[in-house]
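User: I'm curious whether this sequence folds into something compact or stays loose and floppy. Could you predict its structure so I can see for myself?
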Amino acid sequence: MAAVLYAATLFFPLAEQSYERVYEAKKDSNELWHEKLNTKIVIVDTKITGSELNITVYNNGSTALDSGKLDVVYNGTILQSFNVSKQGVWSPKTSINVTINNGESNRRLKIITSNGVSDYAIS
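Assistant: Here's the prediction. I'll summarize afterward.
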C-alpha cells in the first residue's frame, strides 16, 4: 500500500505538469488560428517607377499587423532588403507601400505577414 501511495505522489505532479503544457500549447494554437482567420491582405497595385517596384498592400482583415515583420518573396527569392512606407502597427482597413529596388515587370511577387497569411501577384 505504501508503494502505491509513493508512486502516486511521484506520478501526480508529472501528470499535472504535462497537462498544463498541453493546455498552454492548445491555448497558443487557438490564439494563432484566431489571428490567422481574422487576417487578410490584398496586393491592390504594383507599379514600376524607374528601377523601383512599388507595391500597395491593403490590410483587409480585422487584425492589426506589424509592417516591420513582413516577408517579401520576389521571383522565388526571399528579399533581405525592401522598404515599407509605414513601420510598426498596420491597422485594419489601411494600406502600406512596399518598395523593391531594381524591380522588373512580369515577376512573381508574394507578401507574407508574420502569422503566415499572404497574397500573390505578378508585378
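Summary: DSSP finds one helix and ten strands in the chain. The domain at 38-122 is CATH 2.60.40 (Immunoglobulin-like).
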